[in-house]
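Feature request, filed as a ticket because there's no other form

It would be nice if the structure record came with a short human-readable summary line next to the tokens. Right now we just get the raw output. Example of a typical job, pasted below so the devs can see what we mean:
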Amino acid sequence: MPRLIPLEEKGSTIAANALSPHGGTLIDRVVPADRGAERIRGLKPIAVRDSIAAECIGIAYGFFSPLEGFMGRADVDAVTTQMRLADGLVWSIPIVLDLSSDEISARGVCVGETFLLTHHGRPLATLDVEEIFAYDLETLARCVYGTTDDAHPGVRRTRAYRDRFVAGRIELVGTPQVAPPFDRFWLTPAQLRERFAENGWRRVVAFQTRNVPHVGHEWLMKGAFFAARADGILANPVIGEKKAGDAIDEAIALTHARLREAGYFTQAVHETSLLLWDMRYAGPREAVLHAIVRKNLGCTHHVFGRDHAGVGDFYDPFAAHRIFDELPDLGIEPVLTQAWSVCELCGPAYAAFCGHEDRRQALSGTRLRKLIADGERPDPSLFRPEVFDAMLDAGERYGAGSPFVDSRYLEHRNPVFTLPAPEPATVAT
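Raw output as currently delivered:
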């Protein structure tokens, strides 16, 4: 039965690994603003989509340390088949730049040259092309997701890749301008580490989320805080690609902050920041990536609940727990929990303790949407009223009247970040 694992039982090495980035060095691939125009002058542009732009930002600021760019064949192959980089360091999901053969030919992309990656016509990053190669996408999907079933969103994403991967180191030349309300939560790994130091936090437990928090989520964080003997909790919502029925990103970020603002956590123990990442729903493999990224943020612990990063019934609910038994010490301790819910008799209830299965209440997205449609409010024991109000307000402000993703939101969604316009005559056509 999955349970909380005490640090002593795992032979903790937290003292040695506290705040150490993956691979030992926090990557910084950001060109100073006063050098950006000269760095890109005359470079041929290659336009990239939102997800690639977000990954450029993640690489440049060190979220994906030790990566300095998009992976080459040796790393892609090692990650896909062995869950390691080519040098042996644990890594679980390939980070790749895909282009079509036609675009490569039309743009004259070749090894040894430097190109400018652009996003919505604005300079994003330089790319030093080191390798261009094809890869078997069926093998990639089967190894990373454990399936080639098109019903899995990660498999569909993989099959949609263009027919070539382009590898090479990048440098960020366009400082992202993060839009409200996300700007107040945007902190780079270096900035978060400074914040933790200012707070006096040496033991920090990360909470991965893509949902508006109900009381079960709140108590999951509190339980992990005690299990890790932590100084602080980092609620780190994933902001990225959305599908119909998801909570809108603005509601997720604002409601997690509202938990603290309303006093359910004190400011002394709780922070909210963002991770730009499109969920792959890779279950245990994505759990490993989440741990690595939060290690780079400066966290010493990461909570993993039931069905972490899963989708449908593709993974056993506790597959993301067992995978850490197969890995060497990553330098961030997994805190493994069952589900927290609300019981009519126990109140906040941990699955290992509460025996009243028929009295527990769940608050699914479907149920929450029905309550909103019917003009009702959830019981405060299930959903904090301040959080519910913050969710509704976010829906009015940013979601065309709904806190859940629909076609209107997808069509008119405000960009999470934009890039500054280039200086005249710096970008080739």
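Something like this underneath would help us a lot:
The domain at 7-19+179-412 is CATH 3.40.50.620 (Rossmann fold).
The radius of gyration is 22 Å.
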